[in-house]
# Entry
Amino acid sequence: MNKAVLSVFTGLGLLDEAFRREGFCVVSAGDIVTGQDIRNFVSTKDSFQGVIGGSPCQEFSGLKPASLKTDYSQLMIEEFKRVVLESDVDWYLHENVKGVPDVKIKGYNHQRLIINQGWFEPIQRLRIIQFGCKNGGHIEIETKKILKECDSLALASDKRPFYELKMLQGLSKDFDLPEFTLAGKKKMVGNGVPLSMGVVIASAVKKFVNKNNKNNSLNMNFVTDRTVVFITLKSVLKMVAMKLTALILVASLKQV
Ligand SMILES: C[S@@+](CC[C@H](N)C(=O)[O-])C[C@H]1O[C@@H](n2cnc3c(N)ncnc32)[C@H](O)[C@@H]1O
# Structure
């Protein structure tokens, strides 16, 4: 049985939605904008198969002046790592901007991939996906040709109208966040992982999980087969030993 996936720094939940579309059951630890600070979240061991999330990236993007930078984004990466270790998951997937440091976690191998949104739609934007897993596997995302050169990208600080940002991120025109101000809505949508890209990432993880499950069941069968051979051999040896004992007994009785 596949366990659920834990989403952290959920934001609008675009990355979660992409994983759901690929058949994963996703549960969320929430987001600070809706009152859930990751620093107060305590996970449980053995409940989840993987952790996904894009931690805040402001300090890693070239857009913020050096004088205004803090260590907040790095602190949030440490929180991401803590949740992965606490949950003791098989794999993790971290999404962020180009300047993000490596998110390496003890006990997991580490893969860093650059994905261009321009492979999926006419928007140029680089995203860094970092994937780690316990068993030495990896994910494969096909590098594609950029569809069309274009400098348009949805940003958290985007000046364009809300409906345009929704379209860029793959959201329906009816999508709304009524409890947020217009600036808040645009920030949430601009922060999200576009659905077209999220689905490709989630599909690559699904392939990894399926392959992993298949290998595990093969190993289980191997153990089962070996166990059956061992039990059969043990019973044959027991029978031979009993027969020999009986023969010796009969022979010694005959001598008497
Ligand atoms: C890059 S966005 C995530 C976008 C999301 N992956 C999506 O596809 O919609 C980062 C999110 O981290 C949230 N965040 C920042 N600090 C946080 C904290 N201490 N605890 C929980 N969430 C936090 C922000 O509010 C923001 O929504």
User: Anything to note?
Assistant: Residues 9, 11-15, 31-33, 36-39, 54, 56-57, 76, 191-193 surround S-adenosylmethionine (CB under 6 Å).
